[in-house]
């Protein structure tokens, strides 16, 4: 595995994995990227101009193959969604879903999340940020590479409006504990549950096939929902 260029600052939000787009993903990318794609060259966006109206806006960091993001956008057409994913097959797969479902409320970045946060999103423009099943870096010596760290969380905080939600989910208990420690100590955030408690899975978060397989094997999933307080 190899990494792309270092982000401007902060922990990488990904590891670049090998993989090519299928022919269907490639064609969907070519047809739909001009309409739904966003780039760092666009600079700081105005979501109202991007979507043509003002609506609840959610950012998903690392949407994988895009199935869950497409499901959420289809279920909430009155809301807008921005997805970030560095892996081209995932971007192609999401653009294929957008085209097949006729979705108009998703825009996509194919760059590192650090660049999106620092260079593309105005402060307090987001109602929700979702980070589902990020790389757990399960070996102890790699824990420093985990995305959910105090500095990263503070940069997310500034992009959320006051009252906005940061929603994290993981199927690694050790990472869940790490997330809880980081979030519980983060200035400007408060747990939507009692202190130290995980949240029930909200109805809007789809259960993935991967998650369903894990549940059958007795694996747990932990959701954390914290809101910005100031």
TrEMBL record:
<keyword id="KW-0489">Methyltransferase</keyword>
<feature type="binding site">
    <location>
        <begin position="208"/>
        <end position="211"/>
    </location>
    <ligand>
        <name>substrate</name>
    </ligand>
</feature>
<comment type="pathway">
    <text>tRNA modification; N(7)-methylguanine-tRNA biosynthesis.</text>
</comment>
<feature type="binding site">
    <location>
        <position position="135"/>
    </location>
    <ligand>
        <name>S-adenosyl-L-methionine</name>
    </ligand>
</feature>
<dbReference type="GO" id="GO:0043527">
    <property type="term" value="C:tRNA methyltransferase complex"/>
</dbReference>
<keyword id="KW-0949">S-adenosyl-L-methionine</keyword>
<dbReference type="InterPro" id="IPR003358">
    <property type="entry name" value="tRNA_(Gua-N-7)_MeTrfase_Trmb"/>
</dbReference>
<feature type="binding site">
    <location>
        <position position="139"/>
    </location>
    <ligand>
        <name>substrate</name>
    </ligand>
</feature>
<keyword id="KW-0808">Transferase</keyword>
<comment type="similarity">
    <text>Belongs to the class I-like SAM-binding methyltransferase superfamily. TrmB family.</text>
</comment>
<dbReference type="Pfam" id="PF02390">
    <property type="entry name" value="Methyltransf_4"/>
</dbReference>
<dbReference type="InterPro" id="IPR055361">
    <property type="entry name" value="tRNA_methyltr_TrmB_bact"/>
</dbReference>
<feature type="binding site">
    <location>
        <position position="171"/>
    </location>
    <ligand>
        <name>substrate</name>
    </ligand>
</feature>
<feature type="binding site">
    <location>
        <position position="85"/>
    </location>
    <ligand>
        <name>S-adenosyl-L-methionine</name>
    </ligand>
</feature>
<feature type="binding site">
    <location>
        <position position="60"/>
    </location>
    <ligand>
        <name>S-adenosyl-L-methionine</name>
    </ligand>
</feature>
<protein>
    <recommendedName>
        <fullName>tRNA (guanine-N(7)-)-methyltransferase</fullName>
        <ecNumber>2.1.1.33</ecNumber>
    </recommendedName>
</protein>
<dbReference type="GO" id="GO:0008176">
    <property type="term" value="F:tRNA (guanine(46)-N7)-methyltransferase activity"/>
</dbReference>
<keyword id="KW-0819">tRNA processing</keyword>
<feature type="binding site">
    <location>
        <position position="112"/>
    </location>
    <ligand>
        <name>S-adenosyl-L-methionine</name>
    </ligand>
</feature>
<comment type="function">
    <text>Catalyzes the formation of N(7)-methylguanine at position 46 (m7G46) in tRNA.</text>
</comment>
<dbReference type="InterPro" id="IPR029063">
    <property type="entry name" value="SAM-dependent_MTases_sf"/>
</dbReference>
């Amino acid at each position: 595995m190899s990494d792309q260029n270092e982000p401007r600052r902060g922990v990488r939000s990904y590891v670049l994995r090998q993989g090519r787009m299928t022919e269907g993903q490639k064609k969907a990318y070519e047809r739909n990227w001009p309409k739904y794609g966003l780039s760092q060259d666009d600079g700081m966006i105005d979501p109202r101009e991007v979507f043509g109206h003002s609506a609840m806006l959610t950012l998903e960091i690392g949407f994988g193959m895009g199935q869950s993001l497409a499901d959420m956008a289809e279920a909430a057409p009155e809301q807008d969604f921005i997805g970030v994913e560095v892996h081209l097959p995932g971007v192609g797969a999401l653009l294929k879903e957008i085209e097949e479902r006729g979705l108009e409320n998703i825009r996509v970045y194919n760059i590192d999340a650090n660049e999106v946060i620092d260079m593309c999103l105005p402060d307090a423009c987001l109602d929700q940020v979702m980070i589902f099943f990020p790389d757990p870096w399960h070996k102890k010596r790699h824990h420093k590479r985990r995305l959910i760290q105090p500095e990263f969380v503070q940069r997310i905080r500034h992009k959320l409006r006051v009252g906005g939600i940061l929603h994290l989910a993981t199927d690694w208990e050790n990472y869940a504990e790490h997330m809880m420690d980081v979030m519980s100590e983060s200035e400007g955030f408060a747990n939507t549950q009692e202190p130290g408690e995980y949240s029930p899975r909200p109805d809007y978060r789809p259960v993935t096939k991967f998650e369903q397989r894990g549940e059958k094997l007795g694996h747990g999933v932990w959701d954390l929902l914290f809101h910005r307080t100031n």
